[in-house]
Amino acid sequence: MKTTLVIMAAGIGSRYGGGIKQLAAVGPNGEILMDYSIHDAIAAGFNKIIFIIRHDIEEAFREVIGNRIEKICADLGAEVAYAYQALDDLPDNATLPEGRSKPWGTGQAVLACRDILHEPFAVINADDYYGKQAYVLLHDFLEQYDPAHPEKLCMAGFVLKNTLSDNGAVTRGICRMNDAGYLTGVDETKGIEKTADGAQAGGKVLDVDSLVSMNMWGLSPEFMGLLKDGFVEFFDKAEGDMLKSEYLLPIFIDELLQAGKVSVQVLKTSDKWFGVTYQEDKPAVQQAFAQLIADGVYPSDLFSDLK
Predict the structure, then answer these.
(1) DSSP letters along 164-187, please?
(2) pTM
(3) Helix (H) or strand (E) holding 241
(4) What 8-state DSSP symbol labels residue 61?
């Protein structure tokens, strides 16, 4: 079965201090976070990669990763495609608010794939490293896709203590689950900081062994229809400041969950997450990859182990 990895790479990080943070080199030969994500996805069995980008970063994106990855994927039997998130890619019922400058969030980003995505797929952020285990778990789940049950979705659940930054506060979606390991809700928690013996947010001590969502989802092809309808509804409601409002993937999935339209199985991974949220994160991430290579998790010549 064809399974696709969708990489959301349209954002330029405002907190990163300039530059396209997704394109920051973290590996010994200039590899970026996406290189490791693509390596791990192909190793797990994914055979199609879709990059969601914007037209204005396309040249830089292709120069740093696109052209190179296309050649690597071709050698490994994986297809590469591009989707473009655009400010004016709106439903028929919607008009672009005057003064709006940013695209409409992660829900709209994934919707940009609607004409080229017809198989079970995983969604990730471009600027996150998720570890190898999560891709295996998601791929194995997607391989069980049954068109009779397109409502069955999944997400990777990361242990909170494995997702914190040493360089500032982070926002995490802390998962609520039933006894069978299915998601019942997500508590979006801002300002989570490391402490000497754990983590806290707003003075409240958090359970560092709780599972959190890092925006890594396993979705059915039929989900795209729900996402399209949801975007129409987003404009019908037109709540809040429409110069800033965003159609966000996790919020939409939670709405479907609360309405009983989908189920989301939480697949626990014990791998450590890291990302380049702050510019100060970059040296620590480079050091982490150097250690992973020293430990034999990755070859120094990335992708050589897949050929």
Answers:
(1) --TTS-EEEEEEEE-TTSBEEEEE
(2) 0.94
(3) none
(4) H
